[in-house]
Amino acid sequence: MNFYNGSLLFTSVTSAALGLFVFSQDRRKMPNIILALLSAAIGAWCFGQFMGAVNSVKGVVMFWTRANIAAAIFIPVFYFHFVLVFLKRSKEYRTALFLAYAGAAVLLLLDLTPWFVADIAPRPGYLFYPVAGIVYPIFALYLVTLFLAAFVLQIVFLQNSGGAAANQTKYVLVASIVGLVGGLTAFFPVYNINLPVVSQFALPAYLAIIVYAIVKHQLLDINVVIRAGLVYSVLTFFFAGFYSLTIILTSRLFQNLTSFSEFSATVMVVFVSVLVFQPLRDRIQAAVDHLFFRGSYYYEKTINDLSAENLKLYQSLLQSEKLAALGTMAAGLAHEIKNPLASIKGMTQILPENLNDREFMGKYLDIIPRQLDRINSIIETLLRIGKPKKFVLSNVNLSKIIDDLLKLVEGQCKKKNIRVSASVPEDLIVRGDAEQLMQALMNLVLNAIDAMPQGGELKVAANEYNVNEGKRLSIEISDTGVGIAPENIKRVFDPFFSTKDNGTGLGMAITYRIIKEHNGDIEVESEERRGTKFKVWLSTKQKG
Fold this sequence. Notes:
The protein is α+β, with helices and mostly antiparallel strands. The chain has 3 domains: about 5-220, Rhopdopsin 7-helix transmembrane proteins (Up-down Bundle), CATH 1.20.1070; about 225-295, no CATH class; about 390-544, Heat Shock Protein 90 (2-Layer Sandwich). The protein has 16 helices and 9 strands. A hairpin with a 2-residue loop joins strand 6 (about 455-465) and strand 7. Helix 11 packs antiparallel against helix 12.
């Protein structure tokens, strides 16, 4: 067996083993199922190529050629499906996924005809290789299209995400590019392209990267199984070797003793194994963790669990503070809604008496829709703020966010005799999460309003600056209220610190974290009885 055939067989067996292993860990999880099917398809393709390479009978080679192509047809569709499931977008692309499977079914039927593989013939380095029929180029296009579509989805996801999910996606993407580029070289002999075929090298590399992602970055959440599997595989190998060695040595040393038998040797092995199992297991566990995982799994798992709990707690606090802020604005918003409702009610009451008055009807048809739109705008803004949402990066129009926010507090400011002035250029675009930026700015504005119980002035200003690292945007929110004591300024952003009798001490802490998550900065200047100014710095995103 030459190196090429050996590598095909190795990749075939390894792919099948990886597929079975992933599937056995959780048969209910769709990512596990699809990755198992993808691994099986790759294994079947390599095995079909191996069988075709080691046979010299043309009819047998043709059979295995059609068999490996049948497996290859499903590699792109399984890969596309796996990426959609992994990124949790399979429902969104349901139609595309259906068309991909339908295309695979059609190609599978055509694989049985000469339209797909017209014949097999000698090629440089190969005794037999497929001769393309009229459908073969369509298959190549189908394969490349699905892979490229999956690549684009992953690249877009990486641009808008971070953390563990991004790390996992990077490895899946890199592994897939390696596998695709190498796999495409298998088409070279079909079209008499005199370039080397490296699929037998690329596919093992693809598998190695995927396995590394599973081990290092907990792809498919089976890290613990791999750790335990490695440990107990080493233990099994050790005890099997120990048992075999003991039997051989004892049979030679005590072969003249009629009372000594293989059973006696087995009892001795069991006795020794009981004594050394736990210390040996601990040592092997430590060695495996150090070699493959750079630390103890249980320590890492504890840290991960704590991080997950902290994230859940933060999200819960974020939502509760958001709802508390909405409650604070309720009185002012009631006033805002009450005014247009009064206009609608008044005009509707006198409508029957003025149905024939064209001037009145013109005013009616102009005023009523505008008042309804005003009410609808207020309600939609409240719903956007109150609805919990994942952190999603996009190009955000900051001008609109500030405008919506000031409309929400307009009634509250009038009630407290607070003048509002805004200096915000149109179309200020930043890269961030619109809902969370609204939350952060809303906390700052509401704090400013609370600081002016006897009335005052609320100023909101935004400007764009050119700095060394690019364009930066500043948002200044200032008030003429009671100010902050010098000893408290450093504690403004501390969780649970509040000078209000009914304050939670979470609003400023959440604002600080949101700004930091957007790679921004926040500063505070204050003087007692003179007022406070908060300045937020964010990076801008140029349009076009």
